[in-house]
Inverse folding.
């Protein structure tokens, strides 16, 4: 007799094969690079990271892998102004803070147990297919530096 198992959260492998894609070493390496350092790298930055472990990989392959991972919903492409897309593996609802000091991107999570509908007055009968909320300003590091240098100026 088999006991019913609790459904486990979907792994990378399951998600990717469910979508009809083949699991490849390259896709895994690209995904691991994104999960390893969640600083919203561009495709070129991902390429540099993967290349250090997998010297044979090409930039074109990295672009393809990122596209597949985005299509599968494992990764989100983050676009800002006309800058190259960056990639984010955080699939929880969150906004992005674009730092004007260091050009970094920081995740801004929704408060726990809040939904977007609780925050925004979405007009009735409107259908939202996609949302992207962004902030501009200074990240914690840059804000701290700014404070330091403005204190110096006062003296
Ligand atoms: Zn910054
Ligand atoms: Zn993010």
């Amino acid at each position: 007799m088999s006991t019913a198992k609790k459904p486990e959260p979907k792994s990378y492998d399951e998600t990717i094969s469910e979508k009809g894609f083949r699991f490849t070493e390259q896709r895994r390496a690209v995904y691991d690079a994104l999960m390893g350092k969640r600083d919203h790298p561009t495709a070129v930055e991902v390429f540099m990271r993967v290349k250090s472990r997998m010297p044979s990989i090409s930039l074109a392959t990295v672009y393809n892998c990122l596209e597949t991972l985005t299509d599968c919903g494992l990764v989100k492409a983050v676009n800002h102004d006309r800058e190259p897309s960056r990639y984010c593996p955080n699939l929880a609802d969150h906004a992005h803070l674009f730092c004007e000091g260091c050009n970094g991107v920081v995740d801004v999570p929704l408060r726990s147990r809040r939904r977007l509908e609780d925050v925004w007055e979405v007009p009735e009968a409107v259908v939202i297919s996609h949302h992207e909320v962004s902030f501009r300003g200074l990240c914690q590091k840059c804000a701290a530096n700014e404070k330091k240098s403005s204190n110096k100026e006062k003296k």
